């Protein structure tokens, strides 16, 4: 029986042994999972110091240190060289006073009703008006003493007593300088009156024939240079050489005429204190004839070796018909006639005719056009007020000024806004794009980083809506800056709209508008 019991217990013992062995395996497995990796120990301080002081490592560290600074200095030097020698985008030279304009042309005839004070004194009273209207230069015509019977110069070094005294002139100049207004006068260097001291003294060789001066005579040239230097010292900033014979001589390469202009120019440039002074040639010629007047070496700032500024026929004469095709052709001629980088002046009204005489509703449009061109506008007194020939109510200056400030659109108000543009980089340096859309003329001016300007003139008799969005540089929207003075506002009240898409520019009949926009130079 004992054997039976042992036989029965044998399987149990084997089972317990199996369980015991399995448990031992599990425990062994568990002990392996908890086993920590062997820790790595770094060099001790003492061991590191052995390497730190080792000559090999000392030399290696010093070599790497030197190489680092040599590389750094090399990169710095390379950067400096690149900055110095890399092609730059040069900044344009700043425009001078005679390039900005507008220039205000006035003379004693504009003060014909003035009886209690001189022309010079009357001008002094009007200087603040000129500043407010935006003029930076006065063109006064002749101021030299002339003979009553001939109208020719009697004395180049004295003022015409019909205009005032020399003391009044000095006072006028002082007032002009306080307001930073320049002055241009006429100078006829090749003739005098028979009553001039030179003629009466019958100086040998002074005259070539009659009262015509011999401009090849070095004594004559010396006297004329004295005239220039004297009046430059008295505050004159520009001299218009009012001699068709000399102008024609320069154009046709007459050496005596050219030598005289070179001499006068050198004298003018050398007057102290040094400042920008000019020789001008205000002519009635076609623009394409003017190029020789500037000389052969016209710099990037538009300054040549002879005259600084020249004008041709007035806009009234050049645009007898104010139609979009005529305006388009005229703008192209102004921009291309002087291919030698010269800077022209643009006279708005002629001596005998004003814009308002034939196109009273387009006065503001023509003033806008003159403002937008790469040229200096020359404005006959009254053009800014919408005058016709014969108008002389100068009280309209203050009337239009006050009305505009009170919210009513006036010719003076439009002009004063235009004059502000003449001092912006966009107008002085920007690109010009000339476009025509049926009866509408569109001129835009664009310069990177500056607001763009767009002038739209509807020369037609019907209102229209234009899409000007595809013009180069045009933005998505335009904002109204100025508009021409209309007899009545359009029935749809579009004049009250200040900003709108450039795809929908609404123009009334015979209307002109000036817009500003943010240029899109990707177009």
Describe it for me?
The radius of gyration is 41 Å and the shape is globular. It starts with a helix and ends in a 6-residue tail after the last strand. The strands form 5 sheets. Strands 1-2-5-8-9-10-11-12 form an 8-stranded parallel β-barrel. Strands 13-14-15-20-17-18 form a 6-stranded antiparallel β-sheet. A two-stranded antiparallel sheet has the order 3-4. The protein has 17 helices and 20 strands. Helices cover 39% and strands 17% of the residues. By secondary structure, the chain is an alpha/beta fold.
Quick synopsis:
The chain has helices at 2-33, 45-52, 55-85, 97-100, 119-133, 166-178, 197-200, 218-233, 244-251, 255-269, 315-318, 324-336, 355-358, 363-372, 396-405, 411-421, 425-429, and strands at residues 103-105, 137-139, 144-146, 153-159, 182-187, 207-209, 212-213, 238-241, 278-282, 309-311, 344-347, 376-380, 431-437, 440-446, 452-458, 464-466, 477-483, 499-501, 505-507, 512-517. By secondary structure, it is of the alpha/beta class. The strands form five sheets. Strands 1-2-5-8-9-10-11-12 form an eight-stranded parallel β-barrel.
